[in-house]
Specification:
- It is a single chain.
- The protein is mainly alpha-helical and about 250 residues long.
- It has 11 helices and no strands.
- Helix 1 (about 1-10) packs across helix 2 (about 20-30), helix 4 packs across helix 7 and helix 5 (about 75-85) packs antiparallel against helix 6.
- The two termini are about 35 Å apart.
């Protein structure tokens, strides 16, 4: 749990080990770190409401809080993956583009649109505070699936090589079931039966979007990287927010 929190949030907990077995457990616990990020964003939404802020400024501040709580790590991965895939280059060249410190036009446009969609959805969701927690947990649910057996690493080193192929599919399924139940209960507490339905649909939509992108990234790059993981987190969370806003 300490490794999961250290890798995925700004909270500086020191993990005793960082071998593949520890990394496997950290990825299985990754959805729990969404409670830290989503909880912080939800607190900002509630405080903004108490301060009398309009819906859109509250939502923008909540999105900013989530970025701070992750050091914008996942947003950085999203921009890098967009630049790499958008280049249309062979895998080696695309990976080199992703590793550069600068950001290209594909990354800029992807970041802007993603943040706009997230803020817009939070501004219109019936229960934004509950929704942002569900979305944050859903985003991190993509990680066990991205690290499941059979998904290779695109590079010999880095985070991808540490965690790639460590999670059994049945373990990812079990974690998904737990997240679905928890999200449905949270949705039911906020909006009754309809809230439970939309919360479950949000988890399914977020995970589905992440798996589609994972398949495409593996096909184009030859495997996963830390940037791919970050992009999947943001994509899954955004897709979940879109469904919750539709409620």
């Amino acid at each position: 749990m300490r490794l999961a929190v250290t890798l995925l949030t700004i909270v500086p907990l020191r993990a005793d080990r960082a071998d593949r077995d520890t990394a496997r457990r950290a990825m299985l616990l990754a959805p729990l770190t969404g409670l830290v990020v989503g909880g912080g964003a939800a607190a900002v939404l509630l405080l903004g409401d108490l301060a009398g802020l309009a819906a859109l400024p509250r939502a923008a501040l909540a999105v900013a809080a989530a970025a701070v709580l992750t050091r914008a790590l996942h947003l950085d991965g999203l921009a890098d993956l967009a630049d790499g895939l958008g280049s249309g280059r062979p895998p080696e060249d695309a990976l080199a583009i992703m590793k550069r410190s600068d950001i290209g036009p594909f990354g800029v446009v992807t970041l802007l649109l993603t943040l706009l969609v997230q803020a817009g959805c939070l501004a219109t969701a019936p229960d934004a505070a509950t929704g942002v927690v569900i979305a944050a947990v859903t985003g991190r649910l993509a990680l066990p699936w991205a690290c499941r057996t059979g998904v290779p690493s695109a590079r010999p080193g880095g985070l991808g090589a540490l965690v790639a192929g460590t999670v059994a599919t049945r373990a990812a399924v079990a974690v998904t079931g737990a997240v679905l139940v928890a999200a449905a209960l949270a949705g039911a507490a906020a909006g009754g039966a309809e809230g439970a339905l939309y919360a479950a649909l949000a988890v399914v939509a977020g995970l589905g979007a992440a798996l589609l992108m994972l398949r495409h990234a593996v096909r184009r790059l030859g495997g996963v990287t830390g940037d791919v993981f970050g992009a999947l987190v943001e994509l899954a969370a955004t897709a979940a927010l879109v469904v919750l806003a539709a409620a």
